[in-house]
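Entry 12.
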Amino acid sequence: MKTFSAKESDVQRDWYVVDLEGQTVGRVATEIATILRGKHKPIYTPHVDCGDFVVCINADKVQFSGNKLRDKVYNRHSGYPGGLQSIRAEKLLEKAPEDVITYAVQGMLPGSKLGRKMLKKLKVYAGDEHPHQAQQPEPMEF
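Predicted 3D structure (tokens):
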């Protein structure tokens, strides 16, 4: 019996919508990363993007466990000397709540071209409105 390996043409992509209101960041990010990778499908192949599209709404109402809202720090570096920029989770949640979810999911995807391709299928919105109604996304519960 031959081993099955999926191809890009074999993949059927679905759309899911996730309501993040009251959800914990890390716990919901693992589920989203699993769907983006396609690990929930029987045709999952590690070197092929088998995942589905995920639309996240209410990113501004997400929660952190413990003292992470106050203590967690997100760092960026420009590559130049003295180019380190830090922002606390509390400030980032006020300023750009979409980035909190994006950073959490990005850390759970592969750090390669394939991972960047998977991350493009993630759509995050601060409010409860999104422009993807035409794709008829299915609601997903965790």
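Annotation: The chain has one domain: 13-93+101-140. Residues 13-93+101-140 form a domain with the Ribosomal Protein L13p; Chain: A; fold (CATH 3.90.1180.10).
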